[in-house]
Amino acid sequence: MASASSIAASIASKTKTKKKHFVAQKVKLFRASDPLLSVLMWGVNHSINELSHVQIPIMLMPDDFKAYSKIKVDNHLFNKENMPSHFKFKEYCPLVFRNLRERFGIDDQDFLNSLTRSAPLNSEAQGRSGARFHTSYDKRYVIKTISSEDVAEMHNILKKYHQVKSACLPVIYMQFC
């Protein structure tokens, strides 16, 4: 009988202690006071993560200077306090800008952390065309909103800018809309 009571006691002790199961957050939340900045942070994160799965080309082709990636997000319930329920994110010339970051020694993870760890800071300065300026929380990068005319102009000069090897200052125009 003693063995039966010890078995019952061990079963009872097993039911009293519950294992705690912690679940790590799977999706990174992008919190900014301005929905545009939340979308920018989401887009930079998405772009860098997508590019990490693409093999680095030996040489950029002419089509890489015209390429863009565009994603439409229907965000009905997730993080609706900080992000719009529907938005589009468009990145111009992703392989070209990855190549420029690489040439100037900018690590993709450092770049990602600078732009997504905390919301970019608003600058009081404004461009002539009404463009808004922001800086990354660590003050390493400046973000400028641009018009569609500015995008067209950037496409016109990007190939020449890329061809100049080391004479350029390590300034990279990142185009995210």
TrEMBL record:
Chief site of localization: membrane
UniProt-listed SUPFAM superfamilies: SAICAR synthase-like
Domain PIPK residue range list: 32-177
EC number: 2.7.1.149
One Pfam family matching this protein: PIP5K
GO cellular component labels: lysosome; nucleus; plasma membrane
Record GO biological process: phosphatidylinositol phosphate biosynthetic process; regulation of muscle organ development
Keyword Transport among record annotations: no
Keyword match Transit peptide: no
Enzyme type, top EC level: transferase
Catalytic activity, as annotated: a 1,2-diacyl-sn-glycero-3-phospho-(1D-myo-inositol-5-phosphate) + ATP = a 1,2-diacyl-sn-glycero-3-phospho-(1D-myo-inositol-4,5-bisphosphate) + ADP + H(+); 1,2-dihexadecanoyl-sn-glycero-3-phospho-(1D-myo-inositol-5-phosphate) + GTP = 1,2-dihexadecanoyl-sn-glycero-3-phospho-(1D-myo-inositol-4,5-bisphosphate) + GDP + H(+); 1,2-dihexadecanoyl-sn-glycero-3-phospho-(1D-myo-inositol-5-phosphate) + ATP = 1,2-dihexadecanoyl-sn-glycero-3-phospho-(1D-myo-inositol-4,5-bisphosphate) + ADP + H(+)
Subcellular location: Cell membrane; Cytoplasm; Lysosome; Nucleus
Molecular function GO labels: 1-phosphatidylinositol-4-phosphate 5-kinase activity; 1-phosphatidylinositol-5-phosphate 4-kinase activity; ATP binding
Protein's recorded name: Phosphatidylinositol 5-phosphate 4-kinase type-2 alpha
Keywords: ATP-binding, Cell membrane, Cytoplasm, Kinase, Lipid metabolism, Lysosome, Membrane, Nucleotide-binding, Nucleus, Transferase
